[in-house]
Amino acid sequence: MRKFKIFTDSTLDLPEEILKEEGIEIIPLSVHFPDGKSYLDRLEISAKEFLARMKEYVELPKTSQPSPHHFLEAFKNAVHNLENAGEVVFLGLSSRLSGTFQTAKMAAEMVSKKITVIDSKTGSLGLGILALKIAEWLKEGINREELLHRVEKFKEEHRLFFTVETMENLVKGGRISRMKERVANFLNIKPIFHRTPEGEIAHLENVRGRKKAIQRLIELAEQHGKDFEQKIVGITHAGALEEALFLKEKLLERLKPKKIILSELSPVLATHSGEGTLLVTY
């Protein structure tokens, strides 16, 4: 089997045990709290710690991508360890959501032409599942051209849907107005969002009540996918474990997927969507 090394950023939301098993290495983004303290996403602050700390401030934490130096060091070490004979792949959060992909691409061009940098056009466990598929494909010994072809096919079939419990973080982040939030709260409206083919996050529809929002996630997953017995389904949550477990139970019944991965939403992503986020992807 040909040697390879896969890097991703910290928004992929795969559990630590899977990362270790597959040898996938994280290049972390950072979160910065209003008191001036900064942490490497996932490495220096957990999802639970982040949600607890976020409640302490009126302002939202800020987020930032990894530095070019961080990418350069990681790529140089990987190329050296593989003795220029293996495949080095970086898979990043959608370029429509972060500058991480562009920074990684610049760093890779400075190190070696053999480094493949991929814009996932997704995030969270969408990114995580694609990382697992890339690991699987590379174990087959495929070349770069075939790898990129399979990645594009994955993107075409890929779906991601999520809902939020509160719009507070969306308001603070400037994504909706305070007036719209008040109306939504009064009417108990819960928005559903989805990932577009271009890799953006867009509002899809509204439903009344949290239970209906969760039910709608199940329906959307079922309506927009097929061949689930061959697919990995991902469920990510931000402080909503009980509802995530309920979602997992229902998706197992309805979709009968090859596997379901359940994880916590990374601090960087939770900054924007807030506590109570529930996400389904495949």
From TrEMBL:
Keywords: Lipid-binding. One of its GO terms (molecular function) is lipid binding. InterPro entries: DegV (IPR003797), DegV_C (IPR043168), DegV_domain_contain (IPR050270). PANTHER family: DEGV DOMAIN-CONTAINING PROTEIN DR_1986-RELATED, DEGV DOMAIN-CONTAINING PROTEIN SPR1019. This is DegV family protein.
